[in-house]
Amino acid sequence: MHKAATAGSAKGELHLLFHLGEDRYAISAREVAEVLPLRQLKQVPETPDWVAGVFQHRGRMVPVLDLNQRVLKRPALARNSTRLVLVYFDAQRGEQACVLGLLLEQATDTLRLPASAFASSGLEAGQPDYLGPTQADEHGLIQRIEVQGLLDDALRAMLFKAAQQAEDGAA
């Protein structure tokens, strides 16, 4: 059993793949809490247009971002392959970590990607904090999304406060 785990680890860390337009992106599976079908969301007034809303899941309110809206300036399409992916924000807090929802198109595949194969794109200056390093495979480039970079401190405080207020109002 240990040998199989070691062999799998040698091939790389498991990532969830998704698309933004024609480009491929990956999120480490360690940061993924759950992958859900699309849900009805409640809007959060006076937030950026890429904040899709909040929804109640397992007894707590979860804020949701639409990465298509943020990157491509259009909402994620309601396709069979579009998923609501719950990720750990502030993962170092363990079970106390905040959970953030991401609307992601074509989020149906996983792939093992070796950490050593990720490299700087050379374009980091002026790039958003959530855009991580890239690596190539036979289908082209894959860029890693850094979950911690998705929200600045002000928006993080606003969204998780809004989620807490909605949760308190539902109780």
Describe this protein's structure.
The protein has 171 residues and is an alpha+beta fold. Helix content is 19%, strand content 40%. The protein has three helices and nine strands; from the N terminus they run αβββββαββββα. Strands 1, 2, 3, 4, 5, 6, 7, 8 and 9 form a nine-stranded mixed β-sheet that branches. Strand 8 and strand 9 form a beta hairpin. The protein is globular and about 50 Å long. The protein starts with a helix and ends with a helix.
| Mean pLDDT over the full residue set | 85
The coarse silhouette is: globular
Number of alpha- plus pi-helical segments: 3
The largest pleated sheet is described as: 9 strands, mixed
String of helices and strands: HEEEEEHEEEEH
Terminal CA distance reads 46 Å
Count of DSSP strands: 9
Low-confidence stretches at least 5 residues in length (pLDDT < 50)?
A: 1-8
Q: Which radius of gyration do the C-alpha atoms yield?
A: 17 Å
Structural class: alpha+beta
Kindly state the percentage of residues in helix.
10-25%
**Residue share in β-strands:** 35-45%
What's this model, at a glance?
The protein is α+β, with helices and mostly antiparallel strands. The chain has helices at 2-10, 67-72, 153-170; strands at 13-20, 23-28, 32-36, 51-57, 60-66, 83-89, 98-113, 131-137, 140-145.
